[in-house]
């Protein structure tokens, strides 16, 4: 390598080193843009952080999903389609999908309710912590000034000096950005970077308050140790007396008299890892009472709440056959499985394979088999002031769902009754007519007496006006074969 090449190589390496340094610096600066436990060092910091936790939990509770409607819509449509289907296997398979959709909707609602309760418990656990932090922050903000009329002659031997507190401005305790979001030391608060929970030490709140001091002007004769606090006799023993008017009392505010932050740290997570599980109440060693342990544990569970999700089962064989709800309902209505009181593993495997194949290997295959039974099928509902035929997939309310189901069931019951009461074939109809005619002819042959005492009253009746014995009710009774269809037709039309 030539000298020129060596120079170029060194320059190139230096350039790489410079870029690497810049990258590290930038990364470090980026890390510093969010908070850690080290950013909480005052009562105001504690108050700000805990209030921010409350804002976070309130936002999480408001954002909990309420979108079970997608599953409810599928449940409605497939329940109606199952009632409409005529083939037993199709009816069963469609009903199983409706059951799966209902389970998905119920599951999402249960998870959302449980999450909401955990978050509510966490917010309640924060309330005493917020109150204590607010007290500590308020005390830390208290300062004093000389009263506008600071002196009073108490008697011939004493003069008093009084102070008055400055206005406490808690708004300055909460640092916010231009969007109103809380910040700590001008940094964005990132809870996931905080390993412990820092709270106000409620047993030591008074230490947050500064020690007010008044400075008195004396003659230049004080030669004892300066800057150290001692009993009054020691602090002023060598100072010459002077007239009270020259003492000129004034507020003295050295830094050492400021209040001291009283902060307690609690470990809420295993190994102080915010990504890990919560410690049990008994494992929170820094809490001093069972109630405090329970509250801190509730807060941790709230902070660990995951947003519940419920994605509807894909309408294809692989996914539907893996649904416990689909398998359970299908097992109860498919002819090959419904009579089994106990399902062996082989039966379960056969059921799963049957469902996978029958529903279709893909979404397209499923659509080809079931689209006409669900999306394209029509039922009757009362809508816009009249009964009309509508597609099943346009039914979006529970009222219309039950309206459609009841109309379907009524129609199906009427059809079944008609099939039972009407002879199914021409031969059966003719046989019924012949049986009735034969019975009537037989009765006529027996009702021919010309005297009332000879007329058989069990099968015949005596017509006094005509002095005749005739078949009982022959002129008024309509045979059941004729009456039943007429009655059914009347009920349907009504």
TrEMBL record:
Keywords: Signal. Residues 413-447 are annotated as: Disordered. Residues 1-31 form the signal peptide. It comes from the Eukaryota. Residues 427-444 have a biased composition (Basic and acidic residues). This is Variant surface glycoprotein 515. It comes from Trypanosoma brucei.
């Amino acid at each position: 390598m030539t000298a020129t090449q060596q120079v170029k190589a060194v320059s190139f390496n230096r350039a790489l080193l410079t870029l690497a340094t810049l990258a590290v610096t930038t990364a470090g600066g980026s890390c510093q843009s969010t908070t850690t436990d080290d950013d909480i060092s005052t009562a105001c910091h504690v108050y700000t952080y805990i209030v921010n936790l409350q804002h976070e939990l309130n936002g999480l509770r408001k954002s909990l999903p309420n979108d079970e409607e997608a599953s409810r819509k599928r449940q409605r449509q497939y329940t109606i389609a199952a009632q409409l289907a005529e083939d037993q296997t199709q009816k069963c398979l469609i009903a199983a999908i409706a059951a799966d959709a209902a389970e998905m909707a119920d599951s999402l609602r249960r998870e959302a309710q449980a999450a909401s309760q955990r978050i509510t418990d966490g917010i309640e656990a924060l309330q005493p912590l917020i109150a204590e932090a607010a007290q500590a922050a308020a005390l830390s903000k208290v300062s004093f000034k000389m009263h506008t009329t600071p002196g009073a002659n108490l008697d011939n031997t004493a003069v008093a000096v009084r102070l008055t507190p400055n206005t406490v401005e808690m708004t300055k305790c909460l640092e916010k950005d231009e969007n109103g979001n809380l910040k700590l030391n001008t940094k964005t608060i990132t809870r996931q970077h905080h390993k412990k929970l820092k709270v106000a030490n409620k047993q030591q709140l008074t230490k947050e308050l500064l020690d007010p001091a008044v400075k008195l002007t004396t003659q230049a004769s004080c030669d004892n140790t300066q800057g150290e606090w001692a009993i009054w006799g020691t602090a002023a023993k060598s100072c010459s007396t002077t007239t009270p008017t020259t003492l000129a009392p004034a507020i003295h505010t050295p830094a050492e008299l400021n209040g001291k932050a009283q902060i307690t740290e609690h470990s809420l997570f295993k190994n102080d890892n915010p990504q890990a599980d919560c410690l049990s109440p008994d494992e929170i060693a820094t809490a001093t009472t069972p109630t405090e342990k329970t509250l801190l544990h509730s807060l941790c569970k709230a902070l660990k709440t995951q947003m519940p999700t419920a994605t509807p089962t894909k309408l294809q064989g692989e996914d539907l056959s893996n649904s416990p709800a689909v398998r359970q309902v299908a097992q109860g209505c498919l002819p090959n499985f419904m009579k089994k009181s106990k399902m062996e593993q082989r039966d379960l495997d056969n059921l799963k394979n049957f469902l996978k194949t029958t529903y279709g290997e893909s979404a397209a295959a499923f659509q080809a088999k079931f689209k006409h039974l669900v999306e394209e099928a029509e039922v009757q509902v009362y809508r816009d002031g009249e009964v009309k035929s509508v597609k099943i997939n346009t039914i979006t309310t529970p009222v219309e769902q039950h309206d459609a189901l009841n109309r379907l069931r009524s129609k199906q019951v009427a059809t079944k009754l008609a099939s039972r009461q009407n002879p199914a074939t021409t031969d059966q109809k003719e046989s019924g007519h012949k049986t009735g005619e034969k019975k009537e002819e037989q009765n006529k042959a027996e009702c021919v007496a010309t005297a009332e005492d000879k007329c058989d009253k069990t099968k015949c009746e005596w017509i006094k006006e005509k002095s005749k014995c005739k078949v009982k009710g022959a002129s008024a009774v309509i045979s059941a074969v004729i009456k039943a269809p007429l009655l059914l037709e009347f009920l349907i039309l009504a």
